[in-house]
Specification:
heterodimer; A: 248 residues; mainly alpha; 2 domains; 8 helices; B: 162 residues
Chain lengths: 248, 162
């Protein structure tokens, strides 16, 4: 019994607080850090907290950029030229932000340090331009993959329909459904192209315009998804009709 | 007699301490564990984006899997049934053992070329079902990617008042 209590005590006193501290540290809220900086008691503490804030902001950006790079590498429907262009933007951001992190860490003048921290936002616009651009292209890539799968299904359904037709079955309804699906897939591909054009136009110097482009690009993506879901529904109806006809 | 009972009376407070100490330890433990649980519950929302990211990564990884061979390559596990089957994320892919196809394993869903090249092969409804399943996976991957796109927090780039 004593050993159990001893174990629990060790656990309670040493391990759990460390675990909680680790989580608190990992999820440190940016707003709290800003407040902490503003509430600093002296100039030295203020500088230290400003440096911590800058470091935290940069590390979050580097982490999110790394994820965006992974998404880009997984993309299979984006042209290599576009992938290379976007990869250059990401790598440029990563190297410059890392450099900036070093500058902030050694800056001992609070005014200069403030400028460096402001630069994290103003010079990179990671969350307004870069990440929406990469993620938008990644969604377009997924939509293209979806469209390809639907085209495969459509071709197979058409093949099966032809077999049934040759057997003398009435396939008029099925053919209508397949045609509807084909039109929806074509419309979706147009939406995807337009979305990609919007995202490709986004740039850091014109970041304010990029906010509008992001919204427009998103609308195109949502429209493409709707068209593809409609196509999928038509093809599923066609497949069900095929199954019924084939079993007769 | 008095000499024998006196020490016993003096031990009573010590015995009480022995009872109180474990209780205090338990209370301390409960408070810390409760605090930790409460903290995790409170921070759950803020960390949900990361969780979604992890889930979407998983979905992204599996999006490409539409064939028995891809499934077998991804999981390294196939069922010793005939024909062989492979399961990933609740989706089952069946090996195509079509006698007219070549001896290599081919997938029922994407075996379009061998089927279309052979007059004796007809499209089976299981071929269509496999493709319907593949489109469902693609649809889920799209939803996940759009969710991640929407999760980008523009406010992170709002100007700071320092």
């Amino acid at each position: 019994m004593k050993r159990v209590f001893f174990f629990l005590t060790i656990l309670a006193v040493f391990i759990l607080p460390q675990a909680v501290f680790a989580v608190v540290n990992a999820n440190a809220n940016m707003g709290d850090m800003v407040n902490s900086y503003k509430g600093a008691q002296n100039l030295e503490q203020r500088l230290e907290r400003l440096q911590d804030l800058g470091k935290s902001m940069i590390e979050k950006r580097l982490q999110d950029l790394q994820h965006a790079e992974d998404l880009l590498n997984q993309a299979t429907h984006i042209s290599q030229a576009t992938k290379d262009e976007l990869a250059t933007v990401i790598n440029d951001n990563q190297s410059k932000l890392t450099e900036l992190e070093g500058d902030i860490a050694v800056e001992d003048d609070i005014t200069a340090c403030k400028d460096l921290v402001h630069a994290i936002i103003q010079d990179y616009r990671v969350y307004i331009v870069v990440l929406p651009q990469i993620h938008g292209m990644a969604v377009a890539d997924k939509l293209s993959g979806f469209a390809d799968k639907l085209d495969e299904l459509k071709a197979k359904a058409q093949e099966k329909t032809n077999e049934l037709k040759n057997d003398g079955k009435n396939v008029e309804t099925i053919e209508t459904l397949i045609t509807e699906a084909g039109s929806a897939i074509t419309a979706a591909r147009t939406d995807i192209d337009e979305a990609q054009a919007k995202f490709e136009s986004m740039s850091i110097p014109e970041w304010e315009q990029s906010i509008t482009l992001r919204q427009q690009g998103r609308q195109e993506l949502v429209s493409a998804r709707q068209n593809l879901n409609n196509a999928r529904q038509s093809l599923m109806n066609a497949v069900n009709a095929i199954k019924t006809l084939a079993s007769e | 007699m008095e000499d024998e009972t006196q020490p016993i009376q003096q031990e009573k407070p010590a015995g009480s301490k022995r009872k109180v100490l474990p209780i205090l330890i338990i209370i301390l433990f409960v408070v810390i564990v409760g605090g930790a649980v409460a903290y995790f519950m409170l921070t759950k929302d803020s960390s949900s984006t990361n969780t979604n990211t992890a889930n979407s990564n998983l979905a992204n990884t599996n999006t490409a899997i539409t064939t028995f061979e891809e499934c077998a390559a991804a999981t390294g596990v196939v069922m010793e049934s005939y024909p062989r089957r492979c399961v990933i994320n609740g989706y089952t892919f069946t090996e195509n053992v079509n006698a007219n196809a070549n001896t290599n394993t081919t997938n029922s869903a994407t075996n379009q070329n061998s089927n279309s090249n052979s007059n004796t092969n007809k499209v089976s409804t299981s071929d269509l079902d496999a493709l319907v399943t593949a489109t469902e996976q693609s649809s889920q991957a799209v939803n996940s990617a759009i969710g991640e796109f929407d999760g980008i927090d523009e406010d992170q780039d709002a100007n700071l008042s320092l």
